[in-house]
Amino acid sequence: MTAPRKGISNTLTRLFLKFFAFNFNVRPRLNRYLRCDDGWLNFTFGIKTENSSVEQALTFTNGLVRLLKAYPPMPDAQLIFRDETAMMEAVRMPPNKLMVTLMENRMVTRGNLGYLQLFNFYLSLLLKRVQIGKLKKETKTENRDYNMADASRQSIDKRVLKQLSASMPDPGVKWLANSYLETYSLSDFPRLSEFLDIHLKTKAAICHERPLLLTDWFRKNGFETGQDGRPWTPELRQAHGFKYLMENRAPIIRTNDLIAGTTTTKEVGVVLYPDAHGTMIWGELLTAPYRPVNPYEVSPETIDVLHNRVFPFWLKRNFREWVRQEKDYPLCQKLDERFAACFLWKTVALSHTIIDYPRVLRLGTGGIMEEIDAELEQTPSSEQQKRDTLTAMKISLEGINAYAANLSAEASLLAAVTADAGRKAELEKLVDICARVPAGPCTSLDDAVNAMWILWVGVHMENTNAGFSLGRLDQWLQPWFESDMAGLSTEAEREAYIRHAIELIGCFYMRCTDHLPLVPDIGNYLFGGSSSDQAITLGGVTPDGDDAVNDMTYIFLKVTEMLCIRDPNVNARYHHKKNSDTYLKRLCEVNLNTTATPSIHSDEAVMASLAEFNYPVEHLRDWSATGCVEPTLSGRHIGHTNCMMFNMVAALEMALYNGYHPLMRWHLGPETGDIASGEIKNFEAFFDAFAEQLRFLADQTCEYNNLLGEAHQTLRPTPYISAMIQGPKESGRDVTRGGALYNSSGTACIGLADITDSLMVIRKLVFEEKAVSFPELIEAVRTNFENAPELLARVKSRVALFGSGDTEALEMARRITRLAHDSFKAHTNYRGGPYTAGFWSMSNHVAFGTLTGALPSGRLSGKAFTPGLTPEPHASQSILDNIRDVASLEPGMMNNNIAFNVKIVPAAGDPHEKVVDTIYSYAKTYSDLGGMQMQFNVVSSDTLKDAMAHPENYQNLLVRISGYNAYFVSLNRDMQVELIERTEYGMA
Amino acid sequence: MTETDTHTPLILEIKGNSLDDGPGIRSVVFYKGCPLSCIWCHNPESKKAVQEISFDASTCIGCGTCREVCPRGALSPDNPGYIDRQKCDLCFLCVDACPSGALCRVGTPMSVDEILGAVLPDKPFFDNSGGGVTLSGGEPTLYMDFTGRLLTALKENNIQTLVETCGYFDLERFIDRVYPHVDIFYFDIKLMDEAAHEQYCGVSNRRILENFRNLAATAGADGKRLLPRTPLIPGITDTDDNISAIAGYLKSLGISEAALLAYNPLWHEKTDKLGVPDPYKDDSTMTTFANNAVLDRCRRIYTDAGITPV
After folding, report:
1. Of A524, B56, B65, B210, whose CB has the highest number of CB atoms within 10 Å?
2. Is the predicted pLDDT of residue A529 greater than 90, yes or no?
3. 3-state secondary structure of B150
4. How far apart (Å, rounded) are the C-alpha atoms in residues A899 and A662?
5. Which pLDDT belongs to residue A2?
6. Mutant choice from A790, A792, A886 vs B, greatest count of B C-beta within 10 A
7. Chain A partners of B14 at a C-beta cutoff of 8 Å?
8. Chain B interface, best mutation among A879, A921, A922, by max B CB count within 10 A
9. Vertex A425 angle, CA A422 and A426, to 5°
10. Are A736 and A716 in contact (CB under 8 A)?
């Protein structure tokens, strides 16, 4: 094939790159960025079009930028545009929109994404004024420029809650006189109100403390090999680095806080993990403060530190690039980098697990270290890997203890200079607590909560803050609450203590908001508004199978209701045979009052979904929601339950086009039959084609997940959490190597309702009624129904959908869940565990929808899918049909849980109790019918529209996306529109 | 006995998840056909007992498929309301051909079993919420035989039953067929003045008031709830005189609580689709939602008379 003639775009590109090179070569202010602390940043970078009508490349060599005469065969990084039009469009776009170009495959990247980001950084240095100007304009157009401080106050003050009293006492409550705690409100806790205000008004800031300390340590002590030139045992390297980090990071106690320690040095800090996706922010360091959605503060010092000292060290030492180098840039990686079929979370994190808090709180890290010592004594020197792993675990715990000691010292310094007697006493209490825990056993609720937080800070210093979860905190804290209570003699003391307990848990919630995951702008489109999803689980049954609801359950619910914040992500287990109506009604009331949380899980159904793994029943009963909604067995299980977002609709599209994916313009999948030439003769043949494409994609994504797992084992094993999860001590393997007692990997399969409805249309209209031929339907789908309005109308009005109560549609949905479950079950992960299938979507039903053409269901090109497995809005007029259908799916086929969103809107005059009772009836019946999980969004489209127009009044308006909570104002426009368009079931 | 007493009714719709037609979560079965002809009827499609055809301009995609199949040339964008109802003989070929569902049959014959099949799946919701099935309309008592069988079947399935009635029925048949199987009656008392009732509702109110008096005497003792309801129609039923008269009447029967229904003008939207005349279309008092002042005034009258408004 001969290359097409180079055109005007090629010349323009050349001229621009010349201009770029000239500036960087002659202007010292720019030129200095061509080097870092380790020396010159040398690489090649190319820009081209798919058909090579444009081909230009630059080399960066020892401080000199040159335009290459010939395009190199494999530049270190390159941007490939679909065509010249796409390229010219991209040039005019503000930087945030450029990311959409990438996502929508109008532009494709090849090679090391770190170099691409470095080039973007250079571009932003050159074009700073233009780019910032464009972003400011976008911000204004989207109504996002307003005074945050006023907005926060306004939003907090606007919130007035109606409160029920419990009509029946809860049998699990021992000390609370009113289990609903309805007499307390936020105004009783000025400290919490102040923290909430800070949370809502403070722009997050990128914190370089963690990456800088770690990078310094690794640079000094070696990464691949140690100072002695011998290869590092990765576990030991990470443990030493972690210990250094914990010893040297600033021990900070927030003004007025009851809990010591912070995740970053910022009020609200963005944590950087350069061995994961940290370098993805390189290109945005200058512009991030100005981007319209979720902007970050970035100080000049941070830019300097990251560019010169941190990022260059990690350019090739991150999960993605490790796979690219070590595994020869496999197909599965190329697929992931095209965004349309999957998103592999292991490029960011190996997370979604729960440490064994109760054990650590009971024994102290000191007790755990003694156990490790005992194990070490029994481990012969021939088992070096085990000895190293155990040693690494111990070193890590020394690190966390050092941090606690530093906090104690800091509290002491602060107490010395604090005049206010009350605060002084609080600080002195912290001096004492941090001197004892988490190293020693906890003796009070204050001990336990502080120890938990310190341990939690450690978790996020070692592991990416994406979906690490807290577990059954009501269960684990109740013993301290009870023993504290038992020591009090008067009613007034007990009353004061309950108040203190509420405030303490409130402080813990607010501590959890002190950090955010790093979201490069493209993430605002993929996972908009997501925090780090620190899931808390309440209620359910005890390991013995009894009603687990207790005093602390209601204290957590009270705090959840008062604060109404997105993180922690509160999940409630409800066992319809063991838990009380009083409890369920309270869950519904809190959901109503917060408009979005907690998410309600039917205990029996979730446990039934895991039956195939034959977990011991007392471990199974101890499950917690992890990340969004997914079950893992608390303290014993590495379930990385969000290892991938999997777009099932991509498989459907590939089946429609014989293996070709239209948006990616890629003959990717197997050839399963050309519909246009009549190769698909009946519905079963088409279903088989779809199944084959889905299995193909599952093969690819599992392969990439497993390769990324290996990257984690090499680059970032996690001895610290390994020390606090059951298994590694005995197995002698880090949790990244399968050392935990239980292992699995969980997927989120997206598009169940859209696929069910599409398959129903194909079966009904094409093969049963023969109202349209298959080729005709495909042609209409291919052309977005533009020439087939009649067919579109027929498709949308004449076929029963999932969620309508139609038994055939329901059976179709069940069949698809079975297919997804079985396709993943066929794979084993790199830790020896199974893959599970979940049906929730975070916000990817919007992002993947953007990347998908029209569907046979009549869903038009680019429109969002339904969230999680929520039925299509027009499936039925009655929400009860939705609820029954979803409840009728088989839990065993959905062993990574589901997200079922229900948007209900009470009429303005409806009495509070009536609304609570109605929500209660929905939730109770759903559970009785065997449903797994449901979440109510109690907000009207009118309110959401108003919030879009006047975000300054709605800083705390919480919405449920699909598995997680977000502030409506923090979402990108597509997601806001999607929420507004979701069916709204009136309660009038 | 009315002529329709033993007929099988047409059903307009079975509405699930209804929260305002009785306690808890309910399914409401809307009958077609009513002995009254209230000019403000909230469900104008329920007045006639026979099938009708409706056209929804907002759903129509203008493809013209219906015009091709109509044997009588009754369809045209030039017709007011699209359908020439003089020409249309209700063959419904157009409805079957319409791809978008803009043309619809109004009223479908359904058997007791079919209705049961439609409501039973929601029984768990009824049970958890204290809800059940409401028969509404139209007028369920127009079809005593059918309604009696339907109610019997519902009770056999332990479903709580509620009948909304205009009160214009044959008492003897009612007591015989319907009354034993009903837990709750919502009974409309619209106008106390007989002439006004004839003028606005098409029939005298004597029979209605007589029926109500009889039910009021027995319902409580039989463990049934009887709730009189009055829709507040601007200038027609919401006058001080009428509301006071109703209050006095209820008080005299020992009734202590009664419903006042705020005016809801949404029925105007339905008249166009059915092609029925709407004399109040341009009357602003009839096309806007009730304001609270009216409701408060009427409630005060009730309260003063010792009736609790609900």
Report:
1. A524
2. no
3. helix
4. 28
5. 55
6. A790
7. none
8. A921
9. 90
10. yes
Peptide bond into B180 cis (omega under 30): no
Is the predicted pLDDT of residue A631 greater than 80, yes or no?
Answer: yes
Contact A676, A775 (CB under 8 A): yes
C-alpha dist (Å) from residue A128 to A125, A132, A284, A285, B269: 5, 6, 11, 11, 56
Task: Please judge whether A880 and B25 are an interchain contact, meaning their C-beta atoms are less than 8 angstroms apart.
Answer: yes
Contact partners, residue A181, CB within 8 Å, separation at least 6:
A498, A502, A554, A555, A558
**Residue owning tokens 């997914």:** A630
Task: Count CB pairs under 8 A between chains A and B.
Answer: 65
Is B64 within 8 Å of chain A by CB?
no
- Beta strand A901-905 with A985-986 is parallel
pLDDT per residue as tens digits for the range B193-234:
999 999 999 999 999 999 999 999 999 999 999 999 999 999
Other beta carbons within 10 Å of A316: 14
What confidence tens digit (pLDDT) does each residue in A267-303 have? 999 999 999 999 999 999 999 999 998 999 999 999 9
CB B215 within 8 Å of CB B228 = no
Structure tokens at A408: 């104690």
Q: What is the dihedral of CA A211, A213, A218, A221, to 10 degrees?
A: 180
Residue A3 has pLDDT above 70, yes or no: no
Give the ipTM. 0.94
All residues of chain A having their beta carbon less than 8 Å from the beta carbon of residue B128 are 920-921, 924-925, 928
For residue A710, what is the DSSP state? H
Residue A988: predicted pLDDT = 43
**For B153-173, what is the mean pLDDT?**
97
Min mean pLDDT across A128-137, A811-820, A822-831, B139-148 is at A128-137
Block residue for tokens 């246009």? A676
CB–CB of A183/A128 below 8 Å?
no
Please report which confidence band the pLDDT of residue A987 belongs to, taking 50, 70 and 90 as the band edges: low
Q: Is A625 helix (H, G, I), strand (E, B) or coil?
A: strand
Residue A480 pLDDT class (50, 70, 90 cuts): very high
Contact at 8 Å (CB) between A900 and A823?
no
CB-count exposure of residue B84 (10 Å: 0-12, 13-18, 19+): middle
CA distances to A68, A162, A326, B155 from A190, in Å: 63, 20, 55, 56
Nearest to A752 by CA among A667, A850, A872: A872
Per residue in A148-201, pLDDT (tens digit) is 999 999 999 989 899 999 999 999 999 999 999 999 999 999 999 999 999 999
Give me B68's structure tokens.
């091709």
- The shortest CB-CB distance from B129 to any of A798, A877, A921 is to A921
pTM here is 0.96
Quick one: pLDDT at residue B1? 59
Q: Got the DSSP string for A781-802? A: HHTTTTT-HHHHHHHHHSS--T
Chain A residues interacting with chain B (CB cutoff of 8 angstroms): 789-791, 793-794, 796-798, 805, 876-881, 883-884, 914, 917-918, 920-922, 924-925, 928-929, 985, 987-988
In Å, what is the CA distance from A773 to each residue of A10, A681, A762, A765, A853? 45, 11, 9, 8, 20
Q: Which helix (H) or strand (E) holds A245?
A: helix A234-248
To the nearest whole angstrom, how far is the Cα of A688 from the nearest Cα of chain B?
30
Instruction: Please name the residues in contact with B155: beta carbons below 8 A apart, sequence gap of 6 or more.
Output: B161, B181
Q: What is the mean pLDDT of residues B152-173?
A: 98
The string of pLDDT tens digits covering residues A838-892 is 999 998 999 999 999 999 999 999 999 999 999 998 899 999 999 999 999 999 9
